[in-house]
Write a structure and sequence with these properties.
single chain, alpha/beta, six-stranded parallel beta sheet, five-stranded parallel beta sheet, 18 strands, about 35% helix, globular
Length: about 425
């Protein structure tokens, strides 16, 4: 027997996947609030909107499990309606409708007005760039472009997000000013491909111009760059990084592999030599830069020799930050035509080996920080520690600086000068000065 829902007409938005999805959820929540709807993020509500991820197998599995979980809650009368949106829904809508019919409605990544209508709300054009942020008050993501024009063989993002589409500079500046008024001090610029920014609107790569405008926004102290692409990287961005204190000495640039054979099959448009030269150029122009990259192991045809080349390169390059994924065989991608011939246990073993190498590199680089003082943003208090980050660290993925909360008091959301006293693989310990 159905019981009455406890929360009436409260919309709970649940976000899965990447920061770009989180941004979309924040925009949805902003629209709902402007329609006088009660909306929460990942709390209790009788109407649920699940913003799904469809990128790789693990993410798809998590999305499907989340949908099934809320459908079960609907059957038990704990929620009244379940709506599904985002990348999984964009990519597999016919299959999902067939396999999980108890969802009230499915929407793709470009169907925000239709989703709002289903929720009893109207899409308000005048709200462009306005949203309800779900991150700690001191930082927010700023999505500068949607979609991707790159032909990478392993990636399904163009299937889910479409072609690259830059957001105009003036619109992004307006959004940044709004965020600064809300107390945001750090902007994390995100896109499927930052490198491509502006080519469609301004007929040139215009990331440097965007940065020059964003640094003028009062209240914004740090601007961080996420998800650049190595081919065609606009080097004028490095000059802005050097000349503008607000632009963090930090770059997230997924490189995926280094073997020429694998890079060619991945359709990355670069080589071992060109990639290494680019990283060396970064370090020559901005010696302080922390570089974060991600790699894929177990791609079709990756031999032991290819993997040994990758391992050696990781040792040689000594990246400040590095993540490693196992290859996921995605239908309708170019690589799906290849045989997924590296066994799952070998993929996982290779990923573990890379991360062991990186842990040692990270530990060694962190030891060099002991005794140095850094400007840190304090994100939160957790247990007996205040948790902060340097300009070389992005939230959730990089090093954190831990300060003993029993000895020192710091204000969350504010900057502090922290002297590093100890260092582990991925954590730094310090005290305010």
């Amino acid at each position: 027997m159905r019981t009455k829902s406890r929360k009436k007409n409260k919309i709970n938005v649940v976000t899965l996947g990447c920061s770009k999805n989180l941004y979309d959820s924040e925009v949805l929540m902003g629209q709902l609030k402007a329609n006088d709807k009660e909306v929460v993020h990942e709390e209790e509500g009788n109407v649920v909107v699940i913003n799904t991820c469809g990128f790789i197998d693990n993410a798809k599995e998590q999305s499907v499990n989340t949908i099934l979980d809320f459908v079960q809650q609907k059957e038990q009368g704990l929620v009244d309606k379940v709506f599904v949106t985002g990348c999984l829904s964009e990519r597999y809508k016919p299959d999902l409708v067939k396999e999980i019919p108890d969802v009230d409605q499915y929407f793709g990544t470009t169907e925000l007005p239709a989703l709002l209508k289903a929720l009893g709300a109207d899409y308000k054009h005048e709200l462009l760039g306005e949203r309800i942020t779900t991150t700690p008050k001191n930082f927010a993501f700023l999505k500068i472009a949607e979609g991707c024009d790159r032909p990478c063989s392993f990636c399904a993002i163009p299937l889910m997000r479409g072609k690259h589409k830059s957001t105009p500079i003036e619109q992004l500046v307006k959004e940044a000013k709004g965020l600064a008024k809300e107390g945001v001090k750090e902007l994390i610029l995100i896109a499927q491909d930052l490198t491509y920014y502006g080519l469609d609107l301004y007929k040139k790569r215009n990331l440097a111009e965007l940065l020059k405008e964003l640094v003028k926004v009062e209240g914004i102290e740090w601007i961080r760059l996420h998800y650049a692409f190595p081919t065609g990287f606009p080097l004028d961005v490095l000059d802005v990084m050097n000349n503008e204190p607000k632009v963090c000495n930090y770059l997230d640039i997924p490189l995926q592999h280094i073997s020429d054979d694998i890079l060619k099959s991945m359709r990355r448009g670069t080589t071992h030599a060109k990639t290494t030269a680019l990283i060396n150029k970064f370090r020559e122009i901005v010696p302080q830069m922390a570089i974060r990259t991600t790699l894929i192991v177990g791609y079709p045809g990756e031999t032991e020799a290819h993997f040994e080349e990758l391992k050696q390169w990781v040792k040689d390059m000594r990246f400040e930050r590095l993540g490693c994924f196992t290859y996921s065989h995605e239908e309708n991608t170019h690589a799906y035509l290849l045989e997924d011939d590296v066994p799952e246990e070998i993929k996982q073993q290779r990923a573990n080996e890379i991360m062991e190498i990186q842990a040692q590199i990270s530990w060694e680089l962190n030891q060099e920080k002991i005794g140095n003082t850094y400007t840190c943003i304090i994100d939160r208090k957790e247990g007996n520690y205040f948790v902060g980050r340097t300009e070389f660290d992005s939230p959730d993925v990089d090093n954190e600086v831990l300060i003993d909360a029993e000895k020192y008091y710091l204000k969350t959301g504010e900057f502090a000068q922290i002297k590093i006293t100890q260092a582990a693989d991925f954590d730094l310990y310090g005290e305010p000065i």
